[in-house]
Amino acid sequence: MADTLNNPSLLDLTFSGLQELLVQSGLKPSHAAVIWRLLYRGSWDGESRAPRLAATVHDWWDHHRPLPVASLGRSVATDEFSEKYTIHLLDEQVVESVAMRYPGRNTACLSTQVGCAMGCQFCATGQMGFRRHLQPSEIVAQALLLQSRLMEAGVGGLRNIVLMGMGEPLHNYEAVMTALDILTDTRGLNLGPKRVTLSTVGYVPGILRMAEERRPYRLALSLHAADDALRQAMIPVAHRWPLGELIEACRIYQRQTGKRIFVEWTLVEGVNDSREQAAQLIEVLHGLDAHINLIPLNRTAGYRGEPSGVASGQAFQRAVKAGGFPATIRQARGLDIAAGCGQLAGAV
Ligand code: SAH
Ligand code: SF4
User: For residue 240, which phi and psi values (nearest 5 degrees)?
Assistant: First the structure.
């Protein structure tokens, strides 16, 4: 554990961070471009000694362990559209990432923490509790792994990133933003910032900070309930930030960034799929530019709720649409391999 956390990997560094490290090591910052290409443009396989480096840089490279994941230890579960990777980190913690294949827009669902401190009852990650934050390198490495697997499979590279795996990204703000800076760097993987979606449980300080820093990513808000009592029953951390405060943070975010907010709503039968909830949702979101994503509950071991039936999901969708908000029901994916939303939990 100490080793993982104290010895930064090259994948923890932004381009300018890499340049600084080279200078501190008495090397020329101009080596950064070659090293960056090796790391992010697929000319190095992640295992062998790096080719095409000057002798002085070779020793330096060997000294700075480039990958934080034990030989990218991985097991893969596959269904028609999704591949779930179980990644063993150096301290033997485990995270999961999912590659979702959509023609022309392959999407990586990445984890940002081992476990999660927010404790949502219906979520397998919440049920396991919080173990630790991921470092930037551990987030970046998930994307690199998925990218290389997609390329090997000949189905094109990564287009989209969603931070909807294990953990609450805004609770690990610095590491997540560094990782996104790295993944969207045009000299490297070059993922479009608008193709990155960060999903939050409603971590208000993080939303405000994204607004202030005008982060260019898409923001998804896991709302799930339109009154405080129900929201607090589903999401313990909602006690800390009542709906009024949360929605105000979203308004500030929208004023600062001009960006639409994607509201996520996990439909649980008889819990949050009523007409009343739909009506209250419309009221709560009044004046916001929001798109609502309805996600039928995926089953997890520690929660008794059932997914809403098709008819009640569609009725809820119709109601919010009639209230002026675009709404879609998300396709279920990866359920056979427990790779659906909220089903990720390391096996260890
Ligand atoms: N912590 C962040 C991101 C990870 S969860 C967040 O909560 O937004 C990604 C999405 O999956 C969230 O919208 C979350 O509410 C949803 N989710 C969690 N458990 C689920 C389940 N069992 N079924 C369906 N969606 C679930
Ligand atoms: Fe954490 Fe998100 Fe799961 Fe809630 S839904 S426990 S915030 S990962």
Answer: -75, -40
